[in-house]
Specification:
alpha/beta
């Protein structure tokens, strides 16, 4: 299994970015990929075109796919406003199968304002995906990392 964080360039230097918490402990399961509007990452593009990668992001009437059917997961890593802009400015993302995480809990993330109801931060999404995929030890480790980070 591989989780790709399609990351806005500003997120690489933000101290409030939660995606970076998962990269080291995941031992290669989580990888950050720089988002470029006009130059999509060739690996991700190939995975999306061959329907081998699932985008965790549902907008409009996108058909829902089942997370358990995919070994490659893409998460847009940025603020909610940046994530929406990335999706809207990246036509190639619309070709990927999409899914939403059906989570009933509220986000625990406290370091950024203007979080929408029902929205999770990047590491919370990663943790939920790991749980669905049965990687409970890594999910628990990342939950501990997030608790320390979130203070």
């Amino acid at each position: 299994m591989k989780i790709f964080l399609l990351t806005h360039e500003r997120e690489f230097s933000r101290k409030t970015n939660t995606g970076q918490l998962a990269v080291g402990p995941s031992a290669g399961i989580v990888e950050r990929v720089l988002w470029k509007r006009l130059e999509p990452d060739k690996r991700l593009l190939a995975l999306m075109e061959s329907r081998q990668a699932l985008l965790i992001y549902t907008k409009g009437d996108a058909a829902q796919s089942d997370l358990v059917d995919f070994d490659n997961i893409i998460i847009i890593d940025g603020t909610w406003q940046e994530s929406q802009k990335i999706y809207n400015k990246s036509p190639y993302l619309k070709i990927a199968p999409q899914a939403m995480l059906n989570i009933s809990k509220r986000s625990e993330y406290r370091l950024r304002r203007n979080q929408p109801d029902g929205g999770l931060c990047t590491i919370e999404c990663i943790i939920e995906i790991l749980k669905v995929k049965g990687n409970h030890p890594l999910a628990a480790q990342l939950e501990s990392e997030f608790e320390l980070f979130n203070g």
